[in-house]
Write a structure and sequence with these properties.
Blueprint (H helix, E strand, L loop, with lengths): L10 E4 L13 H12 L4 E3 L10 E7 L5 E7 L3 E5 L4 H4 L8 H14 L3 E4 L1 H8 L10 E5 L4 H15 L9 E6 L5 E3 H5 L4 E5 L4 E5 H6 L8
């Protein structure tokens, strides 16, 4: 595994002995589902840690196509591989053909602004598993990692323009903007410009002043 610890939205593959590293009980049925998933060589997504977790605790999630969700709490040593979320460009071919023009526009936007653009949620699961997760009314969850506040503002303006397209042209765009401290804010919430923002951190969810969120970036920009 890479030296950095797995972060929320990353993907992990479990080793054969994962059940011996469980930190919280898991039903026999859920164990069977997770083991079957593991045997197919498929990864689980990294979830938010709990405040009482130690450095060697790992919280994972398995989302099944039938909408069942299984939470897996294991020791970090049970993970044998660890990768970041797939890029939107890589996942584009896994999206329905009718969605690709709008999503392709998002890829080009990220490239133009030099903002890494990844995906999580249903499109990521469909891309990584080859199973069907997306439905006609599904959102696409985007994950942006801008390097400065100026890029955040440009990104929000451009996403607002894309969001104005007719819904028949593609899916509703949702998702988060990653913050330099490891937290994340929903881009739609950020675009609404409230004075306080709901920040999803690695271990908790907090309300922060918009100005404090802006100050996390290297560029100085008014909130």
């Amino acid at each position: 595994m890479p030296p950095d610890a797995p972060a929320r939205h990353d993907w992990v593959r479990l080793g054969e002995s994962w059940e011996g590293h469980l930190r919280s009980p898991l039903s026999a049925e859920d164990r069977k589902e997770v083991e079957g998933w593991r045997q197919r060589g498929l990864p689980l997504v990294v979830a938010r840690r709990q405040p009482a977790d130690g450095k060697d605790d790992l919280r994972l999630g398995l989302a099944l196509p039938d909408k069942r969700r299984i939470g897996v709490h294991v020791a970090a040593t049970s993970a044998v591989t660890h990768v970041g979320p797939p890029t939107l460009g890589a996942a584009l071919a896994s999206a329905p053909a009718g969605w690709r023009p709008r999503l392709g526009a998002v890829v080009r936007l990220g490239d133009a602004l030099d903002v890494p653009t990844c995906v999580f949620g249903s499109l990521a699961w469909q891309h990584l598993s080859g199973l069907r997760y997306l439905r006609p009314g599904s959102d696409v969850d985007l994950l942006f990692a801008p390097r400065g506040w100026g890029a955040v503002e440009e990104l929000l303006t451009a996403l607002g323009s894309l969001d104005g397209f007719d819904s028949a042209d593609g899916p509703r765009l949702d998702g988060e903007i990653l913050l330099p401290d490891g937290g994340a804010v929903a881009w739609r919430e950020l675009a609404a410009r409230p004075s306080k923002l709901l920040v999803k951190g690695p271990m908790d969810v907090t309300l922060r002043d918009r100005a404090a969120v802006a100050a996390l970036f290297s560029e100085e920009c008014p909130a």
